[in-house]
Amino acid sequence: MPDAMPTEAAAAPGAAALIDHAAGIEAQDVHAWFDRHHVLHGASLAIAARQVTAIIGPSGCGKSTFLRCLNRMHELVPGARSRGRILLDGQDIYAPGVDPVLIRRRIGMVFQKPNPFPTMSVYDNAVAGLRLAGERDRRVLDETAERSLRAAALWDEVKDRLGRPGTSLSGGQQQRLCIARALAVSPEVLLMDEPASSLDPAATLRIEELARELAQHITIVIVTHNMQQAARVSDVTAFILNGEMIEVGTTDQIFTRPQDRRTEDYITGRFG
Amino acid sequence: MTRELFLKEMEALQADVVRMATMAGEAIHASVEALRALDADWAERIVRDDDRIDALHLELEDRCMRLLARQQPMASDLRTIAAAFVITLDLERLADHAEGISKSVKRLAGQPHLKPLIDIPRMEELVQQMLRESMDAFLRRDTALAEAMAKRDDEVDALRSQVFRELLTYMLSDPRTIPRALELLLVAQNLERAADHITNIGERVIYMVTGELRELNV
Q1: Average pLDDT for residues A232-240, to the nearest whole number?
Q2: Is A78 part of a structural domain of the chain?
């Protein structure tokens, strides 16, 4: 009996139309610094396509930094640098000549605090990425807006107010709008950095359900300080402590029989 | 609906508990039918099939563990999983008693029946009735039914005592009947223990619904 039976996803039809390819990511021996502060020490992780991989660990352990290395966001911080290989479908995203903007479209991201563009409508937010890439065809934009909003399980709630400001939505809706925005450019991977931390419990569960549904079509990596969330939502869990990748395993195994003492101590709340 | 996956897994767990109960009940019934027919081959098949029920028990325990580890169930969800955990163990023991009866059948086969079977089949009927009621109570969360079911355990106990007394008279009057009589005593003992396990299931159903764990039929 599989432990995570794929549900008949209400949101999936939109996602299926948008996503034609999901990629796996392999991080090899990743180091990262903020100026001279060495925050990641040779972290490696193989992330399988079309699964939810959760990265857990205490505050300040480096999990968000690791996530931002996966789509070359880390290097945007002044003074930040990194080393190591990140293979997207076997190709190193840090190889010379690789366009980081393209990488960030193929590997999308949503953040802890929902950040719809404040001056734009729901519709404009949804297709912002497409427009930025040069799409002008109204039909394509309309179609993609609907698909991405459906894929983010938001369409029914906003279809009659696409012209309203993105910021007029509730927190949970705004976060789903950000997910729609990321999905609209057909990424192969979606990174989620504490996506539900600023949301109420009901909105949190909706985001978790959405992550599971989207994982049928796309690769999802979620960083969370809430290990119960990781237990609920992910197929594979990776534990980072003090910048080191301590243990990676199926979520079943990590939460029932962790191999490393430090993993056991963290998930049983001996420290945190 | 949020937590759809979790709710589906809970439903599947409960359905599979009932499925395991059906398998265990069929094994008990088959073992007594095999006794009637003194069919050693049938008995041997029942003994081998017990492996399937053991495997299902382990699978269901594993699923309970995983639900506990991953879904942080609370309140009635938590009690349901805890109840399912213990119930599958009682069902595994139930199936073991069918296996025990079948082993007696293998030892009895090849000889004529010592006496017509009356009380033993009656005990088996009661066990089946109790099992059906326990599963209805489990699915419908019916504590009254669980309590009523548990009261039948007294009848099963009374029949077992009757079987003992009767077989004792056989053994005292003719020592050559002792081997066969002892096997029939074992069969009755297995059925009485089967009913006890089903009573345990009733206790767990009440716990699942009310949060109160108490002994039925003290």
Answers
A1: 97
A2: yes
pTM: 0.83
Residue in A closest to B70 by C-alpha: A231
| Distance in angstroms (rounded) separating the CA atoms of residues B125 and B105 | 18
Please report, for the domain that includes residue A243, its CATH number: 3.40.50.300
Q: pLDDT for B111-154, tens place per residue?
A: 999 999 999 999 999 999 999 999 999 999 999 999 999 999 99
* B63 vs A contacts (CB less than 8 Å): 1, 3
pLDDT at B26 over 50: yes
Contact at CB, A4 and B3, closer than 8 angstroms: no
The predicted complex's ipTM stands at: 0.71
Domain count of the fold of chain A: 1
Q: Does the beta-carbon distance from A5 to B72 stay under 8 Å?
A: no
Among the partner residues B2, B9, B63, nearest to A205 by beta-carbon distance: B2
Please indicate, yes or no, if residue A168 is contained in any of the structural domains.
Answer: no
Q: Does A255 sit within 8 Å of B69, measured CB to CB?
A: yes
Q: What CATH number was assigned to the domain covering residues B4-210?
A: 1.20.58.220
User: Residue A175 domain-assigned?
Assistant: no
DSSP per-residue string spanning A206-256: HHHHHHHHHTTTSEEEEE-S-HHHHHHH-SEEEEEETTEEEEEEEHHHHHH
Closest C-alpha among A156, A162, A157, A151 to residue A121: A162
Q: Do A205 and B6 touch (CB under 8 A)?
A: no
For residue A20, tell me if it sits in a domain.
yes
Distance of alpha carbon A232 from the chain centroid: 16
| Nearest residue in B to A153, CA atom | B1
